[in-house]
Amino acid sequence: MAEVQVPESGSAKDSALLALSILAVLGGIFAFYWYDELPLPVRLLMVFAGLGAGVGFVWFSWYGREFWQFAIASRTELRKVVWPEREETVKTTLVIFVFVAFMAFFFWLLDLLLTWLTRLMSGVS
After folding, report:
1. Separation between Cα atoms, residue 117 and residue 96, nearest integer Å
2. Which of 1, 43, 57, 72 would you call most buried, defined as having the most Cβ atoms within 10 angstroms of its Cβ?
3. Which of 15, 22, 25 shows the shortest CA–CA distance to 61?
4. Stretch 73-94: mean pLDDT
5. Chain Cα centroid distance, residue 41
6. Spatial contact of 36 and 43, defined as CB atoms under 8 Å apart
7. CA 67, 71, 73, 74: dihedral to nearest 10 degrees?
8. Where exactly are the structural domains of the chain?
9. Using one digit for the tens of pLDDT, what is the confidence trace for 101-112?
10. CB neighbours of 58 closer than 8 A, spacing ≥ 6?
11. Which H or E element spans position 103?
């Protein structure tokens, strides 16, 4: 059974790194619009530089470490998944298509019936 971990809270340093990362991303976006006379590739490079700096700041914070641990745990869990064989997948898909066709036919008939009843009650032919 998985052990329950109580997460630590981020320190002041981690909060500062998070704030710096947000400022870096916003700075890249701001530079994109402020330097509108520059060519588009240079302006896009400013945005990507801001994103890279933001990711770098978060990476060294508690939030980045927690995200990395989550990614590793997710990868481990993904390896435990038992994927269905092709035959099972095809059969399941066929069952779903048949069910969808049946439900479409059912709702089409229901719509016809309700339309007929509405017209009958309202006196419209």
Report:
1. 31
2. 57
3. 15
4. 94
5. 28
6. yes
7. 130
8. 11-81, 84-125
9. 999 999 999 999
10. 17, 18, 21, 64, 67
11. helix 86-122
